């Protein structure tokens, strides 16, 4: 059963958003870590 195109686009957006958010969190942690040293 094929998913409607809008659902596929939404899933891609959610995935991209989650990935961008985790990258931001990693970046923030790295900055905090370097400041604490």
Class from helix and strand fractions: mainly alpha
Please state roughly what percent of the residues sit in beta strands, choosing from under 5%, 5-15%, 15-25%, 25-35%, 35-45% or over 45%. Answer: under 5%
Q: How would you characterize the largest beta sheet?
A: none
Which spans of ≥5 residues are poorly predicted at pLDDT below 50? none
Helical proportion?
over 70%
What is the number of helical segments per DSSP (H or I, 4+ residues)?
A: 1
End-to-end gap: 54 Å
Oligomer: single chain
Walkthrough of the structure:
The chain has 37 residues and is mainly α. Helices cover 86% and strands 0% of the residues. The chain contains one helix and no strands. The protein has one helix at residues 5-36. The radius of gyration is 16 Å and the shape is rod-shaped. The N and C termini lie far apart (54 Å).
Write the layout of secondary structure elements.
Blueprint: H1 5-36
In short:
With 37 residues, this protein is mainly α. The chain contains 1 helix and no strands.
Question: What keyword list fits this structure?
Answer:
37 residues, 1 helix, mainly alpha, rod-shaped
């Amino acid at each position: 059963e094929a998913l409607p195109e809008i659902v596929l686009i939404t899933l891609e957006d959610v995935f991209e958003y989650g990935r961008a958010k985790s990258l931001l969190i990693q970046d923030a942690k790295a900055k905090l870590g370097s400041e604490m040293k």
